[in-house]
Amino acid sequence: MTHGFLALNNSNQVLVSSDTRNLHLVAKLSAPIAVDYSTDYYGGIRILRYRVACSVYPVPFFTMPTADFHGVTRITSNGDGTWDIELVRSGSGSTYPEVYVFADPRAGNPTDTHGMQVFRDDGSVAFDSRMRPLAVSGGLPVTHPSNPRPSFPYGLNARYCGSDEPTTGGFFQPTEYNSYSVGGQPTKPMFFYSSLAQAEREAHYSDSDDDCLGSDKFGVCITRTTYDWNSWYWAFYRGGIKWTGSGIQAGWVVVKFGCHWLYEQDDSTLGIGTGGGSGSSGTWPYSNETLNLGASTVLIGDAARYD
Amino acid sequence: MIKPFTILDVRDEACGGKTVFFRVRKVEQVSDSRKTTQTMETSTHVEADQDIDAHVFNILQQSGWL
Fold first, then answer.
1. Of A81, A98, A186, A265, which one has the greatest count of Cβ atoms within 10 A?
2. What count of CB pairs under 8 Å joins A to B?
3. DSSP string of chain A, one letter each residue
4. Which residues in chain B have Cβ-Cβ distances shorter than 8 Å to A153?
């Protein structure tokens, strides 16, 4: 840099520069506008939607008021100057995070007449002291365990996806996480974490009944009916983080689950088919995979500064 | 010894362990004219220092499949 403004801290890290744009507070969202999905099974699932008016891409930080796993899974533009922020949470309570939305100073409209502004060489604002700049107090990379759960589900009903949610939810509930110590954080921390890790797990059960309906005088089965039932139970996971008060756990949250079943019947006489029927219904599963297990960045700030 | 289960796939995980996909089948002659077959395909995590066959055998035995 030969021209412009640059402010460094004692560690030679850039605080303010006319070459970059600092993030500033746009809005504090105290509650979601909608709970798009809710169940207490599968470890608990809450899919929360927050909405913010912002003229540029928003960067959300969220608090974690409960001991559950959280993660931002989607940020979408509504095309009208507002953005929807989707945040998933495990657990069964109705206490939801507060979301603090930051963006570069082009999103702001300060009215104070005193302060300091730093401009980029294109004339846009890089820093504006009137707009409550973001201060980051900590950060770390986290990785998620390759399996949301080590044990396998057994004993589910093979016929017509007959096992209920309390049963299947117990078998697919995520239990694994990696732990990280984080010291010296504020009393009311807020976190930036975009959920990238994904996993799918499924189990296939089948029952088959082979009925001999008629035999000849030699005991050879001449009329036979075979019934086949198949059910595929599955759950889809996204990565999530939990604040323990002294550290972070990187684990998993179930965001979707389902089951697909197939029934077939086959009749034969003397080995010749005489009729049959079949039926099929349900949602088709993904296949056992874990994706995007590389390290994700968690940033930490003091939410109380922006209350 | 003939294994009462089939290992379908073994995937190495970043943590050093393995995810083992397997199938187990149980056949029962219910009566002279009727036979039932139950099949399960699923997965389990095996630590790096564990024997895969022994681990799968143990969990199937504990769960009543064997």
1. A98
2. 75
3. --SS-EEE-TT--EEEETTS---EEEEEE-S-SEEEEEESSTT-EEEEEEEEE-SS--EEEE---SSS-EEEEEEEE-SSSEEEEEEEE-SS-S----EEEEE-GGG-----S-S-EEE-TTS-EEEEGGG-B--EEEEEEE---S-S-SSPP-S---STT-S-HHHHHHHH-----EEEE--S--SSEEEE-B---EEEEEEEEEEEEEEEEEE-TTS-EEEEEEEEEEEEEEEEEEEEEEE-SSEEEEEEEEEEEEEEEEEEEEEEETTEEEEEEEEEEEPPP--SEEE--S-EEEEEEEGGGG-
4. 42
Do the Cβ atoms of B42 and A154 come within 8 Å? yes
Q: What is the pLDDT of residues B8-56, one digit of tens each?
A: 989 888 778 898 999 999 999 988 888 899 999 998 889 989 999 999 9
